[in-house]
């Protein structure tokens, strides 16, 4: 319960901070906090899942047994917890695709809801058969369901934190498209990453023909931006292009890293 509350409180605080406007010191606002909170939530889910799996194994195969004094109270608490979880699931369901933070919160609530279902089912099994090992089996099943989801969420968060290229964006094809824009000679120092969910960014140095007018340069920028917004599975609305005349030489990021 403590871990559930911790993840939900952290997700709520993160959602509130993300609404703050960017500043000179935080030019992207608190957008990246979404990914950090999601990563932390995924780690918590992973630890809880592994612990539940180990505990279930010890109960099933190690001879450890838990004695239940009041099965009726157990059933009541399970039903009450499930009702609260269902309400939370309905609240979070529509937001879980918006960002990683809400997805982490949704997974935590879903994990808790499945735990409540396991409690109710275990109480009913104990009432009908007297066997108190069903909750260990249910706990193991829930853990096996949640661990892969936690790993996937953590993997996605780490990819963003490492500033990997957004999934679905092939930089070789991006370069090819950009170099097909009229008056563009070459593209180098091409980088793409994700600030937070739904906020991919791209930057590049674009070598253009000499002697272009300001109007022509502006037209090239418009075509480059339109290309990134329209031609790829991942639309990139935020782009930064540095136009360089053909023959211009400056230290590139590639050269600096050699």
UniProtKB/TrEMBL annotation:
Please name the GO terms that the record assigns under molecular function: zinc ion transmembrane transporter activity
Using the record's annotation, list all stretches that form the Cation efflux protein transmembrane domain.
1-162
| UniProt keyword terms in alphabetical order | Ion transport, Membrane, Transmembrane, Transmembrane helix, Transport
Q: Which Pfam families match?
A: Cation_efflux (PF01545), ZT_dimer (PF16916)
Pinpoint the Cation efflux protein cytoplasmic domain residues.
166-246
Q: How does it sit in the membrane?
A: Multi-pass membrane protein
InterPro entries in alphabetical order: Cation_efflux, Cation_efflux_CTD, Cation_efflux_CTD_sf, Cation_efflux_TM, Cation_efflux_TMD_sf, CDF/SLC30A
Q: Where are the transmembrane segments?
A: 29-54, 74-93, 105-127
Taxonomy, superkingdom: Bacteria
Q: Name one GO cellular component term.
A: plasma membrane
**Extent of the signal sequence:** none
Keyword Cytoplasm attached: no
**Which coarse location class applies to the principal site listed for this UniProt protein?**
membrane
Q: Where in the cell is it found?
A: Membrane
| Similarity remark | Belongs to the cation diffusion facilitator (CDF) transporter (TC 2.A.4) family. SLC30A subfamily.
How is this protein named in the record?
Answer: Cation diffusion facilitator family transporter
**Organism for this UniProt entry:** Bifidobacterium breve DSM 20213 = JCM 1192
Q: What is the lineage of its organism?
A: Bacteria, Bacillati, Actinomycetota, Actinomycetes, Bifidobacteriales
């Amino acid at each position: 319960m403590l871990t559930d509350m911790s993840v939900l409180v952290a997700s709520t605080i993160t959602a509130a901070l993300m609404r703050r406007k960017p500043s000179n010191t935080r030019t992207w606002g608190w957008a990246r906090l979404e990914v950090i909170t999601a990563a932390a939530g995924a780690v918590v889910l992973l630890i809880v899942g592994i612990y539940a799996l180990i505990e279930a194994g010890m109960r099933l195969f190690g001879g450890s047994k838990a004695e239940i004094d009041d099965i009726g109270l157990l059933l009541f608490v399970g039903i009450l917890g499930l009702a609260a979880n269902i309400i939370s699931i309905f609240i979070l369901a529509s937001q879980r695709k918006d960002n990683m933070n809400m997805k982490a919160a949704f997974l935590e609530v879903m994990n808790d809801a499945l735990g409540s279902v396991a409690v109710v089912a275990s109480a009913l099994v104990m009432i009908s058969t007297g066997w108190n090992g069903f909750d260990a089996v249910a706990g193991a099943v829930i853990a096996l369901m949640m661990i892969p989801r936690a790993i996937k969420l953590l993997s996605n968060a780490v990819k963003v934190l490492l500033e990997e290229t957004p999934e679905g964006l092939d930089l070789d094809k991006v370069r090819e498209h950009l170099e097909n824009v009229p008056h563009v000679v070459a593209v180098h120092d091409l980088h793409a990453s994700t600030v937070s969910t739904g906020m991919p960014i791209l930057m590049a140095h674009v070598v253009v023909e000499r002697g272009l007018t300001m109007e022509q340069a502006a037209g090239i920028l418009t075509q480059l931006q339109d290309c990134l917004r329209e031609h790829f599975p991942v639309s990139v609305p935020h782009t930064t292009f540095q136009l360089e005349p053909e023959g211009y030489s400056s230290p590139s990021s590639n050269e600096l890293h050699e």
